[in-house]
């Protein structure tokens, strides 16, 4: 068995801790062949600097070209401007990338390139076949937890579909939120879905849902109001950071959904967008659109029928979420000033999951 020096400051003061670090080291070596973490991101995670995860289905399936690539780059820049490190996650040639270079991001954005929509269930297939694609909320949350990223920013999460009684279509995003202690910052649930049932499902799964700002109105993606309330609200970044920090101290296995209303100037009139969605849903049913093709189809239809208004709102809300989420990550980093065992291990493997599992002492 590998041995490690007993350093009081590093917390390696018991044989059991040494054994645990060794086992996690071996597990991480296996993961290393499947996940490539960009060096600046790995160093930021290992040194407890603020990192924000970003998904890529918004690039591959959520927006048209070239807006998809432009917005992705602008969101990364917003994250950096707030003092955090942007970690855009995707799958390239059968390997999970945490941090995409410009070439990989362009490949995902270009409409001619062949790429798949990758949820958590699709990861083994995509990796085994050497495929390329954008990661959904579910897959990105899973990978974020795997590598030790606490804050994930997206536009809107998936949820319970309106025809659930017939289709049983419930997004895997909800299940992964219940399994991974990550703070997900979004403009609520996509308004093409059944928001009420989605909130009920999240409650059943033990996911804490909180509105950001004054009041507890749950946003409806394109609109600030959905007609539904959340149990709680937080007023600022510090309160939001404290929320996920306390959850992690409790070793909770579930994540937190922070619902950020779209800025008022970009909010679409609720009745208007609802009528457009109803038409899109009717068209999807008539054309037998099902499975993972439903959401991209509906978003495209809504964009067409609003003469691009929904796309403009989508771009504004994701940037707003990125700004708020990054500030939360910075506050959380300040709260988590701890020294963990396994620092030497991280230098070799660049896997912060090791540090997350061993004994830590608060400064």
Automatic annotation (TrEMBL):
Keyword terms: Glycosidase, Hydrolase, Lyase, Manganese, Metal-binding
GO molecular function, one term: hydrolase activity, acting on glycosyl bonds
Stored Gene3D superfamilies: Indigoidine synthase domain (3.40.1790.10)
Pfam families registered for this protein in UniProt: Indigoidine_A (PF04227)
Cellular-component GO terms for this entry: cytoplasm
PANTHER family xref list: CARBOHYDRATE KINASE PFKB DOMAIN-CONTAINING PROTEIN, ZGC:136858
Name of the protein this chain belongs to: Pseudouridine-5'-phosphate glycosidase
Organism for this UniProt entry: Parthenolecanium corni
């Amino acid at each position: 068995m590998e041995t490690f020096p007993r350093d009081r400051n590093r917390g390696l003061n018991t044989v059991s801790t040494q054994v645990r670090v060794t086992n996690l080291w071996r597990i991480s070596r296996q993961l290393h062949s499947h996940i490539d973490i960009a060096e600046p991101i790995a160093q930021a995670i290992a040194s407890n600097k603020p990192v924000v995860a970003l998904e890529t289905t918004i690039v591959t399936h959520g927006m048209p070209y070239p807006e998809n690539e432009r917005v992705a780059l602008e969101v990364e820049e917003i994250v950096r401007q707030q003092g955090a490190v942007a970690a855009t996650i995707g799958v390239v040639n059968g390997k999970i990338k945490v941090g995409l270079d410009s070439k990989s991001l362009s490949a995902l954005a270009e409409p001619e390139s062949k790429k798949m929509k990758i949820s958590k269930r699709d990861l083994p297939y995509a990796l085994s076949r050497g495929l390329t694609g954008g990661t959904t909320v579910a897959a990105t949350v899973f990978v974020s937890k795997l590598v030790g990223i606490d804050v994930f920013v997206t536009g809107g999460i998936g949820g319970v579909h309106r025809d659930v009684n017939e289709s049983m279509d419930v997004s895997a995003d909800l299940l992964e939120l219940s399994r991974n202690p990550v703070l997900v910052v979004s403009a609520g649930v996509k308004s093409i879905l059944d928001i009420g049932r989605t909130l009920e499902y999240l409650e059943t799964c033990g996911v804490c849902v909180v509105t950001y700002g004054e009041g507890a109105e749950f946003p409806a993606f394109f609109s600030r109001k959905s007609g539904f309330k959340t149990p709680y609200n937080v007023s600022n970044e510090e309160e939001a950071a404290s929320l996920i920090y306390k959850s992690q101290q409790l070793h909770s296995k579930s994540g937190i959904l922070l619902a950020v209303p779209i800025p008022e100037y970009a909010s679409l009139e609720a009745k208007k967008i609802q009528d457009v969605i109803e038409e899109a849903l009717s068209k999807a049913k008539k054309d037998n659109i099902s499975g993972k093709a439903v959401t991209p189809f509906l978003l495209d239809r809504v964009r067409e029928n609003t003469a691009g208004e929904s796309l403009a709102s989508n771009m504004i809300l994701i940037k707003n979420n990125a700004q708020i989420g990054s500030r939360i990550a910075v506050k959380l980093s300040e709260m988590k000033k701890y020294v963990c065992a396994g620092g030497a291990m991280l230098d070799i493997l660049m896997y912060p999951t090791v540090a997350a599992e061993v004994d830590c002492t608060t400064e």
